[in-house]
């Protein structure tokens, strides 16, 4: 048994062929001559696609993109850029950098 909501939706919300009803082309926002300085195209205007689908995903294209993106002159040849080892890193002591505690209050 179906509910009243289901019956209402079947009667009033029917969509034909899986496509929502309504106007898919709305050109109300298209610039009119002399109205705006920002040009806006119509929905029907063709869009130029600079990507060639036949070669867009090829290994050659990806390799060329990688070569273009990496600036070989900016890669450092050695790890430390020529600096000599200085004995490594040493952790600071527990009291290092702290004021000395002479037993007096810091509040005047």
List the helices and strands and how they pair.
Layout: H1 4-12, H2 59-69
Structure notes:
By secondary structure, the protein is mostly helical. Helices cover 19% and strands 0% of the residues. The relative contact order is 0.05.
Oligomer: single chain
* Residue share in β-strands: under 5%
Q: Mean pLDDT across all residues, rounded?
A: 75
Task: Assign a percent range to the helix content.
Answer: 10-25%
Number of E strands: 0
- The global form is extended
Instruction: Outline the biggest β-sheet.
Output: none
In whole angstroms, how far apart are the ends? 84 Å
The sequence of SSEs as H and E is HH
Helix vs. strand class: mainly alpha
Q: Rg to the nearest angstrom? A: 35 Å
Low-confidence stretches: none
Tell me the number of helical segments per DSSP (H or I, 4 or more residues long).
2
Summarize the structure.
This protein has helices spanning 4-12, 59-69.
List keywords for this structure.
108 residues; mainly alpha
